[in-house]
Amino acid sequence: MRVVKGHGTRNDFVLVPDRDGSLEIAPELVVALCDRRAGVGADGLVRVVPTDLAPEVADQAGEAEWFMDYRNADGSVAEMCGNGVRVFARFLAQHGWVDPSRPLSVATRGGVRSVRFEPDGRVTVSMGSAELLPDPVQVSTPTGSWSGTGLHLPNPHAVVLVDDPQDAGELAQPPVVTPAESFPHGVNVEFVAVRGPAHVAMRVHERGVGETASCGTGVAAAAVVAARAAGPGAPDRWTVDVPGGRLSVLLRADGEVELTGPAVLVAELDVDVVALGR
Ligand SMILES: N[C@@H](CCC[C@H](N)C(=O)O)C(=O)O
User: Fold this and answer.
1) 34-43: per-residue pLDDT in tens?
2) Within a domain: residue 27?
3) 104 and which of 22, 34, 115, 245 could share a cystine (Cβ 3.0–4.6 Å)?
């Protein structure tokens, strides 16, 4: 199997090109490919497939020609991936499958997203609007417990404002988020500290993965919550530092959230699928 390795602020992905829509990717194969010792190693897998060959999104793809079929490292599917979709776009452009001088529509399980290539080499994706839960959620780790904000963007997120992201302690295990009914399909959890006006730092525990160096939908959720906490007149452009680098978020007046950052391809390799995981 020919695959490509890429990352966005070190949130890393195995991309599987599937131009003729012929690949069946079972959860076990995702787990084996994402394994960091016996596989290629990644936080998630992205299958690159034309929408007309993808029954999952065929009826909702609109004008999008390509489907970003995203899976977490544990084999579960997710609505969207803010870093993954930017790396996906980089793959399409670098392989000449799309024209980078034009905006690109990408189908995801969470809806169609618009991507554009910035003159400085970064990639921007329009993430949709945040849907906030009406009530606060409680987030606990072995080092503490905090009241947080629950939201969908469109993936589920619980965002906690802390003095320092290190306050969350070890994030190998998922933080406990209550009430559990708030997120029946699991949740990504962000620990966010204000670093200055329109500037925050964040750590994240990703649903289906563990602690990662970055999470695009989580970064966008962090900016939304930080801006709400800043109150009326809060800036619309936010800088979000993650362990893997720096991303920019624009909170548009119409509610749309835009995420901008690097998207890099680092390798193209042939995987011996039979040997995987041995
Ligand atoms: N890393 C992603 C989010 C991937 C999905 C997430 N783990 C979930 O299950 O919702 C991003 O960059 O947004």
Assistant:
1) 999 999 999 9
2) yes
3) 115
Residues flanking ligand 1, CB < 6 Å? 11, 44, 72, 78, 81-84, 155, 188, 206-209, 215-217
Cα atoms found within 13 Å of the Cα of residue 55, Cβ hemisphere only: 3
With respect to residue 276, please indicate whether it lies within any of the assigned structural domains. Answer: no
Ligand 1 midpoint to CA 221 (Å): 11
Q: Is residue 277 part of a domain?
A: no
Whole-model pTM over 0.95: yes
Q: Is the pLDDT of residue 278 over 90?
A: no
Our measurement of the distance from residue 39's CA atom to the centroid of its chain's CA atoms, rounded to an integer in Å, reads: 21
Mean predicted confidence (pLDDT) in 239-259 = 98
34 flagged as catalytic: no
CA atoms within 13 A on the CB side of 175: 34
Q: What dihedral angle (degrees, nearest 10) is formed by the CA atoms of 185, 48, 276, 77?
A: 0
- Provide the residue type at 230 as one letter: A
Ligand 1 atom with the shortest distance to the CA of 215: 12
Q: Same domain, yes or no, for 207 and 191? A: yes
Q: What is the pLDDT of residues 116-153, one digit of tens each?
A: 999 999 999 999 999 999 999 999 999 999 999 999 99
Residues 220 and 137 in one domain: yes
Q: Are 178 and 189 in contact (CB under 8 A)?
A: no
| Burial call 4-42: b when 16+ CB within 10 Å, e when fewer | bbbbbbbbbbbbbbbeeeeeebeeebbbbbbeeeebbeb
pLDDT at 95: 97
Annotated binding site: which residue ranges? 11, 72, 82-83, 155, 188, 206-207, 216-217
